[in-house]
Design brief:
Number of helices: 9
Number of strands: 13
CATH architecture of one domain: Alpha-Beta Complex
CATH topology of one domain: Spore Coat Polysaccharide Biosynthesis Protein SpsA, Chain A
Order of helices and strands: EHHEHEHEEHEEEEEEHHHEEH
CATH class of one domain: Alpha Beta
Distance between the termini: 29 Å
Shape: globular
Length: 298
């Protein structure tokens, strides 16, 4: 059974203020998601499931549905504020869904095979998808999940500091913890982060999380159980979010999470100012023959 790619796209419109997930960055109008799906297809994935919101579903489907016909199976699921939430514990003033872990849960009825989950607005690279597919086909099970580990040096920004989840890995290559580090940047030939007014050097090849996870479908039952009481406990916190790393913590106690290193270069677009850098990076990859100039039309 071919693995599935789950793409978190429900939060994109709010971050951009418009339908920027349909903005073209490639030479033939390709979005970042197009490149992820292209890489997933050639790595052996059989289906892509988009997690979106109902209020922009029609435009989204018109933009993405036709181009994938005959290339990969496509499905859509909706992340809404009341999804998997008891109405009695839904805050009247809450305006946004409950985070990436909640988004994953919303795909429960659409995904029945081992799957990878990624952000819609991040470029992950061919090598990452090949390694994810190998894990999902050959190693993934009810107690073994995985995270793709990016070299820290391949995830920095030229325009300022970044925050990254730094992975602690044991001698068997399994995750033991993810430590959030803020204000990471290059200084005097080293990569450093600031914390409590001190500056600490991080090795260039430190594994960091860019939210590329691999799970067995049994994770949906685990997630539903974990999320059940979350809205009730957070009725007074309108910004509370249930993140995928909370789900990962379950595996640290009840299984294992393989950290799969990749040599791929990561880049992403969160704000409008990032767009030019993304276009330049894609142009270089196309010039290096990593991708065709037109992904879907020869």
């Amino acid at each position: 059974m071919k693995p599935t790619l789950l793409i978190l796209a429900a939060g994109m419109a709010s971050r951009y203020g418009s339908m920027k997930q349909t903005e073209g960055f490639g030479p033939d109008g390709e979005t970042i998601m197009d490149y992820s799906i292209y890489d997933a297809i050639r790595a052996g994935f059989g289906k892509v499931v988009f997690i979106i919101r109902k209020d922009f579903a029609e435009n989204f489907k018109e933009a993405f549905g036709p181009k994938f016909e005959g290339k990969i199976e496509v499905d859509y699921v909706y992340q809404e504020i009341d999804s998997f939430v008891d109405a009695a514990f839904l805050p009247a003033d809450r305006t946004k869904p409950w985070g990436t872990g909640h988004a994953l849960l919303c795909a429960k009825d659409a995904v029945h095979e081992p799957f990878a989950v990624i952000n819609a607005d991040d470029f992950y690279g061919k090598d990452a998808f090949e390694k994810a597919a190998d894990f999902l086909l050959n190693k993934c099970n009810e107690t073994t999940a995985a995270i793709i580990g990016y070299k820290l040096a391949n995830t920095l920004s030229e325009h300022g500091t970044v925050s990254r989840g730094v992975c602690e890995v044991d001698e068997l290559g399994n995750l033991t913890a993810i430590n959030e580090r803020i204000k990471i940047y290059s200084k005097d030939g080293n990569i450093v982060f600031e914390e409590n007014e001190s500056v600490t050097i991080l090795p260039d090849d430190t594994n960091v999380s860019m939210n590329f996870w691999c799970f067995h479908p049994s994770v949906f039952e685990i997630t539903e159980t974990m999320f059940k009481d979350f809205p009730k406990k957070n009725m007074d916190n309108l910004k509370a979010e249930f993140f995928i790393p909370y789900i990962a913590e379950y595996f640290l106690s009840n299984g294992q999470i393989n950290v799969i290193p990749t040599s791929a270069q990561w880049f992403g677009v969160t704000y409008k100012e990032d767009a030019d850098g993304v276009r330049e990076s894609l142009h270089k990859l196309i010039n290096d023959k990593e991708y065709p100039s037109s992904l879907w039309w020869a």
